Amino acid sequence: GAGVSQSPSNKVTEKGKDVELRCDPISGHTALYWYRQSLGQGLEFLIYFQGNSAPDKSGLPSDRFSAERTGGSVSTLTIQRTQQEDSAVYLCASSLSRQQETQYFGPGTRLLVL
Amino acid sequence: AQSVTQPDIHITVSEGASLELRCNYSYGATPYLFWYVQSPGQGLQLLLKYFSGDTLVQGIKGFEAEFKRSQSSFNLRKPSVHWSDAAEYFCAVGGNSGYSTLTFGKGTMLLVSP
Fold first, then answer.
1. Which of A5, A24, A43 to mutate to test the interface with B (most CBs of B within 10 A)?
2. Which residue from A91, A99, A101 is facing B43, i.e. has the nearest CB?
3. Residue A108 with chain B: CB contacts under 8 Å
4. Is the pLDDT assigned to residue A66 strictly greater than 80?
5. Which range (A93-107, B30-44, B70-84) has the least confidence?
6. Are the C-beta atoms of B23 and B6 separated by less than 8 Å?
7. pLDDT band at B62 (very low <50, low <70, confident <90, very high)
């Protein structure tokens, strides 16, 4: 079946603009995760959705970052008033359930803020 | 708090030689452990995982890893490296308590010399 897909694959924006990143998880996966991968860093957890439960937002670095998941499927990560330090690869992953299941990753969105 | 240490930022191995990538973790209970590989411009692909049972885990592409609780380690090994194995490798730890966020190490870049 299809894997996790993300769009766009690359995004260049100007400082101060808002951006939206999209993630389509694997069909049937109820858990969805967003991570950020900065140059020279590991993966930084941002936010986690499980079904209809309230999301775990504990990893969001500032209130400029938000995410939503509509219909328990597609998710959008929004960054408002982008800053140069937001430049990174944003990775989405999904897993079958809340229990510690294997997470399957999408190819990522490479964001560059000029 | 859980954490993962990958002490080697870069490793260079000759093609055909054996490989061992180190991973040490900190976690307060029985961990779930993962190794992922990331090729340039790609998302993360799961190589193998340890949830319970046999401490020697076999994965894809000829990789294996051994969970050593006494050493808090989960080192990745391959008996004979191929040029196509050049990539970045990430170790990750998660919990079995239902809190599904993975904590990743900063990665080890594997270079394969002819």
1. A43
2. A91
3. 43
4. yes
5. A93-107
6. yes
7. very high
